[in-house]
Each structure stands twice: as C-alpha cells, then as structure tokens.
C-alpha cells in the first residue's frame, strides 16, 4: 500500500478489486438474509465482513481494516456462532411469511429506500476526492490516536464506560438465579411414575455395543430404531444416524463371507 | 473508477440488511442483518474519510464498531434469556407488547 | 375632643367582645354590662354634641384619624372618623334610642336563657351602626354596613330554634347581599373615577365628573339603600324580619339600621345632585315604597308585621325626600329622627302588649286592652298620634314638610309625588287607627278560644289550641319596659315641635346637606290643611270599619287586594316566580348546556380519539418486524423529503 493508492482517483487495480470483491460482498449479504440455516447466514456475513475489511484497507483505513477482521469477524461473528449453537439450533428457519402483507410492505419499503438512497448519492456532487495522503502522512494509527486522545477523548471515555456497562449487563441478563430447590432423585422418579409415560430411565443410544455414538439410536427388539435413545437436540435437527439397516446389511455380508469361506473351504475339501 | 462506488455499495448493503430485518424471524439472523447495516455505514464513513481527506470519518467508524460490539453483547444476552424462558428465538413470538 | 369619637364606637364594641367571649360567667350580669356600654356610648355622645353646638356652624366637623388601614400605592384606605352635624344626629339617635331599648330588653328578655348573647349582639349592632355613620370614607362605611347586616342576621335569627326565624334571618341576609353588592360596586366605581373613597375628596370632585358616571354610582348607591332600607324591589325581607325579638324590631328594623339607606343617600347628596336621573330613580323608589308599605300595613293582622309595613312606608317617605335634593335632605333626616322615636315607641308598645298576652301577635285576638295596660296604651297612643301626623306632634311636622317638598318638586312630577305622599298619609292614618282600635278598643276577643282558620295560613296556630284554652292574663309590663316607652313617647310628642322652632333642625344640618326652600305650587297652609283632612278621612274610615263594627276573630276572606296585601302584595311570589324559578330554569339550562355542549365536546373528542386509537391500535400488532417496516418507511419518507427540499 503506497501513498499513490490513496490518491483521489482509484487505480485500475483497485477498480478490479472493487468489482470482484463488491460482487462477492453483495452475494454474501444476500445469502445472509436468504439462507435458511442461521449458521450459514453467520458464515456468509463473516465473508462479507472480511471483504469490507479489504475495502477499508483499500480506502486507507489500515487500522480499521485490521480491527474489522479482529473484532468483527474474529470476535463478534464467532460470538454469533456460539449463540447460534446455543439457541438457534432446532430446525432450519422457514422463510414462509406469517405476517399478512409484511413481505410486500418490506419489498416496497426496502426498494423505495434503496432507490432513494442511491438516487441521493447520485444526486449529490461527490466528484472531488481529496485522498488521505496528507492525513496518513504520519501513519494511520498515529493519526487516529492523535484524534482519539485529543478531539474525541470524551467520546472515547464514554464508549469505554459503555463497554463495561454492556459486559456487566450481559452477565446480569444471562445469569440465572435458582429460585427453587432442585428436585431430588426420589421426586423425579415419583414424577415419572405419576406421568406414566416413561417409567424407566430413557434407553441408551447404541446397539449391542456395535455403535456407541450419541447420534445412533438404539434398536427395538424388532430391529426398528427408537428415537427416545437420542438427545432431543439432535432429534430436532434431524441429525439421527439410522444404522439399523447397515447392521443388517453388515450381518448379511458377514454371513456371506463366512459362507464363501466355508464354501471355499468345502470346495477345497472336495 | 470513482471512489463514490463505495458509497453505492454501502447503500446496497444497507438496504439488503434492512430487508433482512424485515423478512427474517429468527432473532439471531435479524441481529446479523443489523450488523450488516452497521458495517455498510462504516464503509460509507471510511469512503467519506477518503473523500474529505481527514480521519474523522474513520474515528466515527471506530466508535460505531465499539458500540456495535456492546450492542451485540447485550442483544445476544437478551436473546439467550428469552430463549431460556420461551424456548424460541422468533421475534414474532415475542409479541406481548401489543394491547 | 376629637379623640372621643373612636371611643363612641369602641365602647359598644368592647361590650360585644366582653359579652360574646366572656362565657357563662357573665350570664347573671350580662344584660347590665351591655346596657352599661350602650349608656357609656351615649354619655360620650352628649359632650361631643355640646362641643359641636358651641362652635360656629362652619366649624362643626371633627376628624379623627385612627390609623392607616390599607396603604397600597394609590389605594389609601384609612380608619378615620368624621363627626359632623349629620353624623351627630345619627349618633344621638342610635345611642339614645339604643340605650333605651337596652333597658327595655332587660325586662323583655328576662326569661330568655341566652340573654347575655342577645345583649352582646345588640352591642355589636350599636358598634357597627356607629362605625357606619362615623366613617369618613366609603370603605369604612362599608365595614359598618356589613357589620349591621351581620348583627341584623344574628338578631333576626336569635330564636333560631324556630325554623321560621332561621329562614327569615337567611332571607334578610340574602336580600341584603344584593344591596351590598350595589354598595361595593359603587365603591369600586368611586375608586376608578375619583381614585379615593374619602367623603371629602369624592364629594368635592363631583363637579368635574361626567354625569354618566355619577348616575352609575348613584344608581348603585340606590340599590344599596334599597337593600338595607327595605325599599322596593328589595323590600321582601323586612316583614319576615319581625321573627326577631321585639326590641330588635324596634331598634334595628324601625329606628336605626333600616334608615342607613337614607343616611347613605343624604351623605352622598352631592353625587345625586349631579345625577338627576339617579334622583328620579330615588324618588320613584320612595313613592312606590311608601304606598306599597302602607297597603301591606293595612292588611296584616300580625301587629308587628303591620308596624313593619308602616316602617317600610315611612322610610319610603324619607327616601322620597332624600331624592328631592337639597329641598328634601334635611326633612328626610328630620323625619328619620322623629320616626326613630315614635316607631321605636310603637314597637316597644307592641312588645309590651305581646309580653302581657303570652306572645300572641294576632291583633284579632286582642281587643279592649286599654284597661289592662294603661301605660302601654297611653305611650302607644301618643306614638300613634305622632305617626298619623296629628297636629302638634312630631310626625306632623316632619311628614308635612316632606309632602310640601314633594309638591315643590314642581311640574307634573311634583303633583304626582305630592299626591302619592298625601295618599300615603291617608293610608297611614287608616292602618294605624286599625291597629289601635283592634288592640286597645272593642270586645275582649282573647277570652274566647281561638278558632284557627284555614283561610289564613300565614298565621300560625298558637300552641295552646290543642289543649283546653286558658285565656291570657293581660297585665302591665315591668318598669324597665315602661320607662323607655314613656321616654320615647315624650320624644314622639316633642321632637317635631322642638326641631321646627325657628327651623332649628334644618339650620343645624344645612352646612352638611345644603338647604333651599322649596316653592310648592300651593301655599304651605293649603298643603297642611290637606294633610290634616286626609288624615282625618283615614281615621274616620278605619273607625267605621273597625270601631263601630265588631272585629271578627277570624280574618274574613277579603277582597282581592286585601288577600294580595296579606301576602305582602305578592312580593315573595314574584321573587319566587321570577328569581327562584327563573334562576332554577337558567341553571338547569346551563347544566343542560354543560352536559350537551361542553361535556359533549369533551366526550366527543374523547370518543373520536378512542375510535381513532382503536384504528391505530391495529397498527400496533406487537410484531417487531411490522414496526421495523414502519420505521423503514418513515426513513424513506424522510430521505424523499430531504431530496425534495434540496431539489427545490
């Protein structure tokens, strides 16, 4: 990154970079809002943000570009992923609209808003770009630091306070005080008998110790899998691996192999 | 290429983010869309910074990031606690504020 | 000498405070304490009077400035007194007659357990009345004016356990309120016009003031006088005020308080002189009232109410005279003083009769009492002769002068006023003779058990009608009652003559009220003759109706006029129909208006807001995404507006 790239006019290289990465950024944004699974949305968004980081760098905001990668993609988006794993994990979201007229209104408002915004930008006389050559002369980080600790020092302090408050707030919000006594084992078994649904403990996953993975349901005596044996979260996601067929097939293959061997050995005897 | 294209890109991303807020029901995805909108703004600020030839725009973008980080922390905490009590993360289900 | 003026007011005020705050310890001596303070006030008045007499006619005005009351910028109200010939006359009348009536009350109220309180109220009245006539400005006069109203209210309702008394007190208070409103408005007008209330500056500045303002002030003062002096149209309270103890009727509702209106008009003479329209209103009120009261007096069987009608009528004479201007002021005051004597005497006589007749007030159950109550008969008779204007007695001099002055008004007006005054004199002679005959002459109707008549609902059946009837034992009243009556009778006989010697009274008052000789179209002797003739006619008519024929114990149905007069010429019905009913309708209409228009507007606004909110509530569906759409739409509109404004 030389100072030439910070001139008013972008270089051809920057233009190429813009058109390619810009397209990717828009696609990432679109997939963020259109993909059904929250995990996929989060990953698409992370991609878009990385591209934005590159654009920051291209615009001479070196510090911000790095911070964008470290803080946004590295910290915030990963936090999103954690939470998605924690809560948004059941089934994929349905994109079917439930509010009457919401989709049309959203489309109209979104389109109108976007068109007006773009028209506004086009309407404004933004032909002249000064470039950051002068401002970044002493180094971008130094320049920012000088501003932050002089002109914006109060705002800086206040955002510091805001961050602390947010951290405390998050802890307060997610901390759960146990308001009632934990149920004893005896009470739990009594409740089970009273409900009458499942008196015994839930069956364990895995069959005959052939598979002990958590996502493999145990088999009932007739060979069909029992969903009860699998964690409800996995059930909700539809991530049960049914191995009952496989086992039978494996048994069959085993028999065949042994027969082959026996036959071969019989043939060998003959 | 004129750097004003960055602004068009920012407007486009912002609009996409807004549309996402409107059509998605999963609170976490809605939150992501908001982040997208904030990032679009940041891009615009950075472009403005280049346009005016000073670093104030970058400072604003920096502060926006800080605020966004704080907001995400609190927002996600709220989502988690709502999920704990209501077993859903859909924004439509949290409609108790109506008359 | 000036410093004694405040003591005149202070003495009875101290008495009132002592008696009303002193508690039961003073019960045994309360009446004497009250009398003592009244006499003290009179004793203070006498040296002041001699002091005034000793001065030149132009020097006879004393001032005493007590303290500055409300000094606020241009609003300067002082507590200051002015004693001149007019005030002095009133002071002597008030303290003199007041003291006599205090003495009388000692006997009259002997058996009343709240006697101490009664004397406290009487002292309070004296203080307020003296303040009224001694004040040197209208604001202080107003204090006294309200004070006598309060004392009147308290004393009319003194027997408050009787619902009729309590109601009468309230009625008097309310009707007086209308008049008081007039006085307060007049004072406000004075302040805006003259910038002060003191008599001297106000009356001195009349010359530079427009007639319209003077007329407005004059009419308001007339309204005040009507209220306090029971003149048409605010006359309705006086008849009912007779529910109070008889000494009260004598002092307040005959001799002093009701004449405050005459004092006010006379005192404000300069204002009325500058406002002929207001003067015309005054004489009209006076003439109408003097006939009104006289007619009412003819029909009443209740002795006190008959005398109340007479009072109203006599004050009508005074108001008439006061409205005539400088030719009448002095005669108004002269009649006021003589009337103070003879009417107080008549009331005290009536009280004495009632005292001996178990508090019976219906004259149809009297009769032939002259043998049983000789002193009362003689004093009452002298008062009677005085009021009808028997030649040589005091009423003759004062009333005759008023009739002359009325004729002297000149033109058609003079003939009408004079004719009314003459007619009034005839009716006065008639009704007073009727009272006299029914009470002291004729058959002794009280020996028979009374038959309550359904035709006369206004007379309440006596308490003893249910059991066996025990006739009363008429007897002469104790000395404490008869002596004041005798003294007042002396005054009734002599006052007029004394005043008229060499026009002494007129000359005495002239520096204050001005005086000019009226020139009636007839000669003075002709008018005097006419007066005597109509008086004799009235007496004769009454004699033929009540002296020759036996008086029925139950009132006959009577003619339409009689029945109307018994109902006070329908004044209460008029008030009820016009003011009470009209006021009720007005308030009902206003309530309706309030309900339909004001509340309607409010409720309509609320309902439309509710409806609108109901619609708007649909927007508030609780879905965050709907709100987000609205926000985005709003943002789009903002951008559009910004672009448009930029474009423009």
From TrEMBL, chain B:
Gene: nuoK2
Enzyme class: translocase
Quaternary structure and interacting proteins, as annotated: NDH-1 is composed of 14 different subunits. Subunits NuoA, H, J, K, L, M, N constitute the membrane sector of the complex.
Membrane-spanning residues: 6-23, 28-48, 60-83
Localisation: Cell membrane; Membrane
A GO term, aspect molecular function: NADH dehydrogenase (quinone) (non-electrogenic) activity
Domain of life: Bacteria
Annotated EC: 7.1.1.-
Catalytic reaction(s) noted: a quinone + NADH + 5 H(+)(in) = a quinol + NAD(+) + 4 H(+)(out)
The keyword Transferase appears for this protein: no
Cytoplasm in keyword set: no
Function comment: NDH-1 shuttles electrons from NADH, via FMN and iron-sulfur (Fe-S) centers, to quinones in the respiratory chain. The immediate electron acceptor for the enzyme in this species is believed to be a menaquinone. Couples the redox reaction to proton translocation (for every two electrons transferred, four hydrogen ions are translocated across the cytoplasmic membrane), and thus conserves the redox energy in a proton gradient.
Family: Belongs to the complex I subunit 4L family.
Assigned keywords, A-Z: Cell membrane, Membrane, NAD, Quinone, Translocase, Transmembrane, Transmembrane helix, Transport
InterPro entries recorded: NADH_UbQ_OxRdtase_chain4L/K, NUOK/Mnh_C1-like
GO CC term (a single one): plasma membrane
Identification of the protein by name: NADH-quinone oxidoreductase subunit K
């Amino acid at each position: 990154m030389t100072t030439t790239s910070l001139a008013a006019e972008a270089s051809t290289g920057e233009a190429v970079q813009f058109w390619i990465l810009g397209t990717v950024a828009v696609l990432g944004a679109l997939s963020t809002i259109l993909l059904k699974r929250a995990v996929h949305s989060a990953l698409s968004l992370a991609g878009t943000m990385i591209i934005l980081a590159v654009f920051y760098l291209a615009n001479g905001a070196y510090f911000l570009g790095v911070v964008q990668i470290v803080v946004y993609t590295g910290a915030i988006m990963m936090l999103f992923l954690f939470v998605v794993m924690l809560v948004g994990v059941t089934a994929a979201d349905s994109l079917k609209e439930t509010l009457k007229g919401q989709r049309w209104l959203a489309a109209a408002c979104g389109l109108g808003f976007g068109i007006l915004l773009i028209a506004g930008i086009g309407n404004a006389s933004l032909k002249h770009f000064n470039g950051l050559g002068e401002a970044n002369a002493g180094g971008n980080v130094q320049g920012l630091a000088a501003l932050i600790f002089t002109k914006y020092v109060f705002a800086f302090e206040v955002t510091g306070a805001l961050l602390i408050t947010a951290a405390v707030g998050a802890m307060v919000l997610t901390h759960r005080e146990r308001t009632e006594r934990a149920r004893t084992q005896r009470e739990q078994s009594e409740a089970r008998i009273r409900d009458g649904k499942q008196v015994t403990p839930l069956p364990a996953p895995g069959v005959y110790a052939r598979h002990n993975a958590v996502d493999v349901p145990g088999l009932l005596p007739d060979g069909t899998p029992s969903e009860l044996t699998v964690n409800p979260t996995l059930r909700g996601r539809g991530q049960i691996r049914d191995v009952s067929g496989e086992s039978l097939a494996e048994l069959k293959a085993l028999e065949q192999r042994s027969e082959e061997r026996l036959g071969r050995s019989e043939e060998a005897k003959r | 290429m004129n750097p004003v294209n960055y602004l068009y890109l920012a407007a486009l991303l912002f609009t996409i983010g807004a549309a996402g807020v409107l059509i998605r029901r999963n609170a976490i995805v809605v939150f992501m869309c908001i982040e997208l909108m904030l990032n679009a703004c940041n891009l615009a600020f950075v472009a403005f910074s280049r346009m005016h030839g000073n670093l104030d725009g970058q400072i604003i973008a920096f502060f926006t990031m800080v605020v966004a980080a704080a907001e995400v922390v609190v927002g996600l905490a709220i989502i988690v606690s709502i999920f704990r009590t209501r077993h859903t993360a859909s924004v439509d289900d949290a409609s108790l504020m109506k008359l | 000498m000036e410093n004694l003026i405040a003591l005149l007011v202070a003495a009875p005020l101290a008495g009132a405070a002592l008696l009303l705050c002193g508690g039961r310890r003073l019960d045994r001596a309360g009446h004497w304490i009250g009398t003592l303070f009244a006499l003290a006030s009179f004793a203070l008045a006498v040296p002041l009077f001699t002091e005034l007499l000793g001065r030149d006619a132009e020097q006879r005005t004393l001032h005493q400035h007590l303290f500055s009351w409300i000094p606020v910028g241009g609003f300067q109200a002082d507590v200051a007194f002015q004693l001149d010939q007019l005030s002095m006359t009133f002071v002597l009348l008030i303290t003199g007659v007041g003291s006599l009536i205090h003495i009388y009350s000692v006997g009259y109220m002997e058996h009343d357990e709240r006697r101490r309180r009664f004397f406290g109220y009487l002292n309070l009245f004296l203080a307020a009345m003296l303040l009224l006539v001694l004040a040197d400005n209208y604001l202080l006069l107003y204090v006294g004016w309200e004070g006598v109203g309060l004392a009147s209210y308290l004393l009319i309702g003194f027997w408050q356990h009787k619902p009729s008394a309590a109601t009468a007190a309230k009625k008097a208070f309310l009707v007086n309120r209308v008049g008081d409103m007039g006085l307060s408005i007049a004072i406000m007008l004075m302040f805006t016009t003259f910038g002060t209330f003191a008599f001297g500056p106000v009356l001195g500045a009349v010359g530079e003031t427009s007639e319209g303002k003077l007329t407005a002030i004059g009419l308001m003062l007339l309204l005040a006088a009507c209220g306090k002096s029971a003149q048409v149209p605010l006359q309705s309270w006086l008849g009912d005020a007779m529910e109070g103890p008889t000494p009260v009727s004598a002092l307040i509702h005959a001799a002093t308080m009701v004449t405050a209106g005459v004092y006010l008009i006379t005192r404000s003479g300069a204002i009325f002189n500058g406002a002929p329209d207001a003067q015309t209103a005054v004489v009209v009120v006076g003439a109408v009232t003097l006939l009104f009261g006289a007619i009412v007096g003819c029909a009443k069987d209740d002795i006190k109410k008959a005398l109340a009608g007479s009072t109203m009528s006599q004050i009508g004479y005074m108001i008439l005279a006061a409205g005539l201007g400088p030719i009448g002021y002095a005669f108004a005051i002269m009649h006021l003083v003589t009337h103070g004597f003879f009417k107080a005497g008549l009331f005290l006589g009536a009280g004495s009769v009632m005292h001996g007749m178990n508090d019976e007030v219906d004259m149809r159950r009297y009769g032939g009492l002259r043998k049983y109550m000789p002193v009362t008969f003689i004093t009452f008779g002298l008062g009677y002769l005085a009021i009808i204007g028997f030649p040589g007695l005091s009423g003759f001099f004062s009333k005759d002068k008023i009739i002359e002055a009325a004729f002297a008004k000149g033109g058609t007006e003079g003939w009408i006023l004079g004719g009314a005054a003459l007619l009034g004199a005839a009716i006065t002679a008639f009704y007073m003779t009727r009272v006299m005959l029914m009470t002291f002459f004729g058959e002794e109707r009280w020996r028979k058990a009374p038959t309550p008549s359904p035709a006369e609902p206004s007379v309440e059946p006596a308490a003893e009608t249910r059991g066996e009837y025990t006739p009363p034992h008429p007897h002469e009243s104790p000395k404490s009652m008869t002596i004041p009556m005798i003294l007042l009778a002396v005054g009734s006989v002599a006052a007029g003559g004394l005043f008229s010697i060499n026009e002494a009274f007129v000359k005495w008052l002239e520096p204050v009220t001005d005086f000019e000789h009226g020139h009636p179209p007839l000669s003075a002797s002709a008018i005097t003759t006419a007066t005597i003739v109509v008086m004799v006619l009235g007496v004769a008519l009454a004699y033929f109706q009540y002296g020759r024929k036996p008086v029925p114990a139950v009132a006959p149905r009577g003619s339409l006029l009689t029945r109307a007069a018994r109902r006070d010429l329908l004044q209460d019905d008029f008030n009820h129909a016009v003011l009470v009913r009209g006021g009720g309708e007005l308030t009902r209409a206003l309530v309706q208006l309030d309900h339909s228009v004001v509340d309607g507007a409010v409720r309509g606004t609320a309902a439309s807001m509710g409806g609108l909110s109901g619609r708007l509530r649909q927007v508030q569906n609780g879905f965050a995404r709907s709100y987000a759409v609205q926000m985005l739409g709003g943002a789009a509109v903002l951008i559009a507006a910004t672009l448009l404004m930029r474009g423009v």
